[in-house]
Amino acid sequence: MSSPNSSAAESRTAILGRLRAAGESGPLPPLDTAVLERRQWPAVERATRLRKGMEAVHTEFLEATPADWPAVVRAFCEREGLRNLLYGPTSEAGAALAAAWAPGGPQLKPYDRPVEAFKQELFGDIDAGFTGTVGGVAETGGLLLLPGPAEPRLMSLVPPVHIALLRASTIQDSFWSAVKALGWGRALPPNALMISGPSKTADIEQTLAYGVHGPKRLIVVLVDDLK
Amino acid sequence: MHAEKEIHFRDAAAKALLDPQLRANFRRAMDGLITKRKAQFPDPRDLQDLRDLSTAIRSRSLLCLPELLEQLEASCTKNGIKVHWAETCEQANQLILGILQAKGAKTLVKGKSMVSEEMHLNAFLESKGIEALESDLGEYIIQLDGETPSHIIMPAIHKNKDQIARQFSQKIKDAKYTEDVDELTAMARKVLRQKFLDADAGLSGVNFAVAETGTLCLVENEGNGRMSTHVPPVHIAVMGLEKVVAQLEDVAPLYAILTRSATGQAVSTYFNLITGPRGAGEKDGPQEVHLVILDNGRSRIYADPQLRATLRCIRCGACMNHCPVYTRVGGHAYEAIYPGPIGKILTPQMEGVGVRHDLIHGSSLCGACGEVCPVEIPIPEILVRLRREATHDDMASTVAGKGTGRTATEDWAWRLWAGVTKRPALYRVATWFATRFGKALPASAPLIKNWTQSRTKPVPARRSLSERMRAEGASHE
């Protein structure tokens, strides 16, 4: 009997052979992207649109300035009685938050070790996660995230509350224009993500329920840096 | 030619029609989905432009399919994703088993994947002592009852909350009876969170695979897809070989039309782009990512220029939601992994047009499916083509089981018809008898029965047209 590897290689040859035997590639139909190009808004309107789209799916917004956003995050945590906030100490947003964080009150917890040594605590003891974003999408509402070494993937997924920092100037018109503006089409890190709201389901009688597997609440700290 | 076959769909549909609870559950759900989809496309020009663009992208991808698959493999490999190829479901199952056994994995937590349903992966793994747990809420609900999905997007849509409440209170440890949807959801969350935490491996489907960047795109609302692909140490993704597109820019319009067509959402909660396992310096994410590319009859469908359009499908389910047959009988009546209009053309092409003859005929050809399809698959035309393929093997085609759907009764009836119509004297005698005694034929007579089981038996005219013309002459008014 052949090993799974050799049979997988045979399968590959057979499948590609059959597809090739199906004939010439033929002329490619042209792509008319006008419908995507029509989706454009001025910068101020982009923030309003994003907010409207995301609020419709239960995302909450906090308004902030480039100077006071760490205080806005802190005030939210205190108001909600959060015991702790998970952050990425080496990320730009995380470092700025830590620099402004006064002792006492909600505790800042760094995600600074491999998940294998952190899983139980992450699933059991973390009240909220704080991440930056690399942009937003105006057309539908949505945050663009690039999780990675500075901001691990599970920060925006496992804690019951996700707080995300969004600078209004980084909001793109659409996902399509964002892919082009951020150069995602050329190369991507191991994980990239768009998030539009807290986790939800409609699998029981099409009734919307929030917080099924991921965060129950998504808080966007919207920094007005357009002025 | 095969012997007379049992027509499953007709019987199952008749049974489903008599179930008022099932019909109410589907009617409510489908009406909701139709309304929500419509609200997402307020401008008919935008909708048509987006459909044309999406169709063109899918058609282009299929035109270069072998090249794109090779490019995808090369890009994924460069990114550290291991690519495996399987011609059959059995091979795909063995591949996955091999990956799991190499890691000593005993539990697999699954995000939603229709291809894994196609493979009957759960049953296969259970037989090998590996627990495969569905984590999409709808899939979790039906797995508790040992059922299959009745809709490709909303797998548990045939159940209402009372039924789910009873089921949870019986099957989840320490669960109390509640019909509150938030409480039911919270119960599932509690059970499944622990499973995500403990699972040895995770499995997902793939909505789009990007050849240029080697990226697997996953569309979801719940977060179970992200949990299944990011928490366990191993992630296995399974995809049908048609899922590949050339570049990430191509994904944007497909994603836009997918969520709007499927659930009437402009955007899903999560759009997860996976381009590799845990990278250097990363603190989480799987150590290994595997991609299993499955054929299972797709390359045969690909070989036919007309039928190839079947492979444009992005699995939104809009054809089901708008189908007058599906909305009345529900998904289980089809006894197929893919129900509804897309299932009626996909299943017979995968399993054989002869053995799934029943599905090809389970349509009124009203055309609603073709009208709403975001990638303009001409489902009614393909159904008509497959109806011919099922009873004829004279076409130069690669259709599985062509000509095998012809039944002995049908064959006998056509021979009789041909014999009578070729002999004018015999034809006159036959029509004389039919017009004089047709009325007396019982509605339960063979062949007639098929028509009369849901209709009144037609009454033949007293005299045939040619008799009247001979007697009365023809006038040109």
Structure description:
The complex is a heterodimer of chains A (227) and B (477). With 227 residues, chain A is α/β, with parallel strands linked by helices. Chain A has helices at residues 4-21, 34-37, 43-55, 69-80, 92-100, 119-124, 175-181, and strands spanning 60-64, 84-87, 107-110, 128-131, 135-137, 143-145, 161-167, 171-172, 191-195, 200-201, 209-210, 217-223. In chain A, 30% of the residues lie in helices and 21% in strands. The termini of chain A are far apart. Chain B is globular, with a radius of gyration of 26 Å. Chain B is α/β, with parallel strands linked by helices and 477 residues long. Chain B has a six-stranded parallel beta sheet with strand order 1-10-7-4-2-3, with helices on both faces. Residues 1-5 of chain B have low confidence and may be disordered. Chain B has helices at residues 8-17, 20-40, 44-63, 65-79, 89-102, 114-118, 121-127, 137-144, 161-171, 181-198, 224-230, 248-263, 298-302, 318-321, 326-329, 340-351, 357-361, 368-372, 379-391, 408-421, 424-437, 448-452, 465-472; strands at residues 81-86, 107-110, 131-134, 201-204, 208-210, 215-220, 234-240, 244-245, 270-274, 288-294. Classes of the chains: A alpha/beta (227), B alpha/beta (477). Strand 9 (191-195) of chain A pairs antiparallel with strand 9 (270-274) of chain B, so a sheet runs across the interface.
